[in-house]
Amino acid sequence: MKDQEHPHEHDHTEPPGDLELKVKALESLLVEKGLVVPAALDVLIETYEHKVGPRNGAQVVAKAWAQPEFKEWLLEDGTAAIASLGYTGRQGEHIQVVENTPMVHNLVVCTLCSCYPWPVLGLPPVWYKSAPYRSRAVSDPRGVLDEFGTILDDHVQIRVWDSTSEMRYLVLPQQPSETQGWPEETLAGLVTRNAMIGVEKIPPPKAQGAP
Amino acid sequence: MTGGHDLGGKPGLGPICPEPESHEPVFHADWEKRVFAMTLACGFLGRWNLDESRHARERQRPEDYLRQSYYENWLAGLQTLLAEKGLVSLRELETGTAVGKPAEIAAALSAQAVPQVLSRGAPVDMVIEQEACFSPGDLVRVRRESTGGHTRVPAYLRGREGIIQHHHGAHVFADQHARGQREGQHLYNVAFSSTRIWTDEENPVTDFMVRVDLWEPQLAPL
Fold it and tell me: pLDDT tens-digit profile of B48-59?
């Protein structure tokens, strides 16, 4: 990845102090009005901070790599195949899995907001929701991939999936050829979130990572 | 009207500068967590749907939408909906003090109910009587007419020609859903060639495909 030294001047995640206060005041008001229960908010946060995240998607990918019949089902009916592993629900009601091959590379974006397959990837990273990614993914995908250090051969066709409906897209990355026959759990450890969005590929494992 | 949210192809927005995946936290501040959770919890009150939520964020002035961080936009959208739906008054939002009666709702989302409501989700597939107009392989053009409110047609595709790739069946039509109407329309995945979208001869783009889901009323036959 490039620009590691680049300051994040465009992502305004450092709030002014009054924003923190404003949000606290809103929560107090909503509690007083009977609209929210703080304990429910805590469970929602806990769920997406610690339980639902890209490790779920990595299990899906590893299973597809290890079991051809599961892969076939996953590509045919992503929602059902993913639900069979227990990953269902909000922002994953309708999932289509798109497969990267030596000839085709898939990249997922939501130019209009931040649609993202929550049950398998959790909440999207800041960059996925950012204006620069949302603008350029559909006009200059090779430039975007370059910013993530991903270089594709010229003959590889890029397919950019702009998530405009309630269909959610998950990329099935290419399995590194060195890892054929590895157990699912080991394979899952190789799968990154960024590869399942399509901005990166899965690099060949380091020698010491082999079982 | 095209709002600040409709970003596909907008120039001059700078580099992406992603945080390394291994170091990025899910939330970057406590207030973000609370805004996220309040938005979901209030959404489960059933007074508005997801498309109305999107529309509430998009209706901000474009300069505000672009200047603010992601969860600041969520906060703005939530406040708009709370006020418009009469759950909280503007005065209460300004002062932070409840003056009226508690809101008339069946029940707030409880901690115990969270796993079930998340796992259930809100599927949008529907069965409708109307037959699908298009089939895979059909050439279509994205209609230019703006519906005047929320739409899931990105500006960069208006008037562009594409090829139907897949019929997803009927889904709730987002553009009407944002007006509170649950209407089913056939949904298609359509392929657009980059060279048919970005036609600036001075800055030719390399060839790639953009795949987009569009509803039947948004498409015209060619």
Answer: 999 999 999 999
CB under 8 Å to A185, separation ≥6 — which residues? A62
Write the CATH number for B37: 1.10.472.20
Cβ neighbours for B113, distance < 8 A, ≥ 6 positions apart? A40
**A159 to chain B: which residues are within 8 Å by CB?**
208-211
Per residue in B104-121, pLDDT (tens digit) is 777 899 999 999 999 999
Binary contact (B213, A127; C-beta < 8 A): no
Statement to judge: residues B102 and B42 lie in one domain: yes
| Active centre residues of A (catalytic) | 110, 113-115
Of A47, A126, A135, the CB nearest to B13: A135
Say if residues A85 and A63 touch (Cβ distance below 8 Å).
yes
The count of structural domains within chain B is 2
Residues B152 and B213 both lie in one domain: yes
Q: Which of B120, B154, B181 is the last residue of a domain?
A: B120
Cβ pairs bridging A and B (under 8 Å): 277
* Structural domain that includes position B78: 30-120
Burial of residue B93, with CB atoms counted within 10 A of its CB: 0-12 exposed, 13-18 middle, 19 or more buried: middle
pLDDT tens for residues B184-195? Answer: 999 999 999 999
- What is the Cα–Cα distance from B187 to B177, expressed in whole angstroms? 14
CA distances from A119 to A94, A170, A195 (A): 11, 11, 16
Out of B13, B28, B36, closest to residue A13 by CB: B28
- Amino acid identity, position A158: I
Tell me if B2 is assigned to some domain.
no
